[in-house]
Amino acid sequence: MPGFERLPGPGEQPVRPREPNERVGHVSVRPVPTTWLPGMKQAAQPIGYHLPPMKRLTGERIIFWALPAVAIIWIAAFFLFPGFLPPMSPEWSAQRVATFYADHTSRVRYSMILFNWFCVALIPILMLIVERMRGMAHRTPILRYCVIGVAGAAPIAFLTATIFWLLAAFRPHRAPSLTQLYNDLAWITFTCGVPFLVALCLFLAVAIYLDERARPVFARWVGHFNLLIAVALVPAGFAGLTLTGPFAWNGFLSFWVKNVAIALWLVVMAVVLGQSIRRDQSVEQVLV
Amino acid sequence: MRRPALLDDPKRELWLAWYATIGFYSLYTVVFFIITRTQPPGKPWYTPTQVVGWFASNHEGLLIGFSLIFILGGLSATSIALITYSMRRMSVSRAFAYSYLIIYAVSAVPGFLFICVAMTVGAFRPGRDPEILRWLYDLGFLSFSGTMGVFLIGSLIWMAAILLDKNRVFPAWFGYLNLCNALTEVVVAPSWIFHAGVFAWNGVIAWWINVVVFGLYTGAFIFLLRNMILREDFGTGPLPDLLPEEGRRRVLAEFMSP
Amino acid sequence: MEDGSNRRLFVVWLILVAISLVYLWIDHSATHQGIPTASTVVTVVAICFALIKVRIIMREFMEVRGAPPVLRRLTDYWVLLMAVALFGAYFAGRAVA
Amino acid sequence: MTTTERDVSPVSEERPSQRVPGGRDIWVFVLFESAIFTSYFCVYLFNRTQHEQVFLLGQSHLLLWLGVLETIVLLTSSWAVARCVQHARAGRYDASTRDAFLTAGLGVLFLVLKVAEWVRLIHAGHTFTSSEFFQYFFFLTVIHCIHLLIGFVVLGVLWYQLSDQERRSQQTVETCATYWHSVDFFWVVIFALLYVVR
Prior knowledge:
The complex is a heterotetramer of chains A (about 290), B (about 260), C (about 100) and D (about 200). With about 100 residues, chain C is mainly alpha-helical. Helices cover about 80% and strands about 5% of the residues of chain C. The longest helix of chain D is centred in the last third of the chain and has 32 residues, at about 130-165. Chain D has helices at about 25-50, 50-60, 65-90, 95-125, 130-165, 170-195. Chain D has a single domain, classed as Up-down Bundle (Four Helix Bundle (Hemerythrin (Met), subunit A)).
């Protein structure tokens, strides 16, 4: 493989001194990844050794620090929506659902407009994770493609739910059975629309497990954590089966466990992502 | 605990994605054809009362089957990722690979999440007004069969990439088969127009013939993706020919020897 | 040689056009006072002529004539298969109608 | 259509009989696509026997001579593309290019006739949804015309091959011609089934 003299052993950081007049690529700033893969004679070409001559603004930190700002909006919208605390019951009659939307029209509208605006802001965060995954000791980009493959659909499923909620509140005085239909569509899309999140956590867990080095991009426990979150999201998929109990859309498992899991995932992934970005930049400073 | 052999395989990521693809398509077939019995589809000419009966007779199957999709449906991304990877391995621009990835990633929501939501909502509250139930029934079947353009354009992109490729990742006949698959998306269009007959969403032409073509196409690409993984040399030039079993093992052993 | 193969293509084209024109006569014989009438003979003859044309196009225009025996046999079987399928569908339909 | 083949120079006229015209891959397409078309035809013929009068009545609104004319136009285009292949094989690329353009021109003529026929029928009130016969009529003619439109792309590839010495590949020329002939023979069967069968 070109540009690679000595193959690093397991867990070794291959540091390749930069040659004088070396052409500096404009690849985004990344740490020097170790390229060792189990039992392999040849290592993949390191991706990140073209480092810029000086510290550049890559924008990753901007995306990263946008997350807390967006999270505040998400939390605000969550509390603003009158149907979350406590969650509306699937047992409500059509009449009661219609009355609910008639009574709380404004709060439903404004909270869901906020969600509609900002739920897609999850995608840049997921793309930051995808960029971290470049540094993992993988031989192919396939797991990144898997994450990209679900990164769009996950927030779009939620976006669809906000559309149904907004439709329910658009003409609250229509026939109650129609308002109830929109309400059901919104809640089922919101609660059961987890397949892409489950897959996201599984893909990340596999990616982290396969990043077998002494200093992986994300620590091994992050992989375990993602698996745990995937498991916590599973009961929500069964919300269609019952109107009462822990699996109902307002139940302990389908509502509380699922949403707490998503919140926890965001917090934990934000922390490890922040650490990873900071580590990259310190590596960059050492090399430059 | 012994370390599984797969973990020391340099192609482990590709194999994981391939087995997940097999798992996803098996799940998909079992859920749609056996558990929910939404394939072959329900009758488009049903009256609202008959739709109520349809939901009642499939109640448990719809709810349990689509729950499985709600949990594992995201694994569809593995086959998309493998196909994207196949195009990245070709001598063509990566624009082909990325277009395919985006198109299929986006199509997941209308292509299969909508039917799951619509049918779950329908089965979940059987006492609803029959007209509303039929509205959900139409939404489910038509969004599932009638999400056409993404698969049409996606197949054409894959076809163009295969025919232009000089790395021999896929045989040209499979490129042409993509055209056949793209044409099935044209043939399904009349299901938006007819309530009965061969062109309706359960019709002989718009459903049965199409599903046979799609099944052959899917089987072919799963098999060819496996061959691609076996032939993969992680280089950038033409993929080597597929060696017989023992030849593959020898090359792998050579590759892995210290 | 060149002229020979060109003339052959021309003759093939003439035959194909002639068969197409025969359809006009077939149709004429199966129409009474401007209203077409059902006729098994016309159906069978029309399908046979169409498949003969398909085989000629494959043999001559698509150059199967000079192709490996596998392809020659395969295309012949394919035309036969089409014939069996079409007549099968037609006669099965007549039987249940 | 594939450009991966190796034989760039025109091969001699004495072709070895072990060579598949256009390569094996396009024949997979031709045979598979004709199997799909055959399945449509079977559905058509079966349903035709179930509602014979509807189909006969619908058929009486077609102009047979127009169908025959369209058939002859398409057959002639097939003849032109067959000549195109032979000229290319003999290295007469100018004649070959001329025949390729003739093929495309006849294809356009077919398309014009077809659109005129559709317009005439639609004006007379016969549309995709008007009767069972016209469902099949419009379905089969439209799906065939989509194949024809793809055929223009294929002829574009053919012309691209012929236009530059560096690119000329006899195999690709034959592949394109094989596609065009398959569009032709699909029409031959469609014509017999829609216009003549009773």
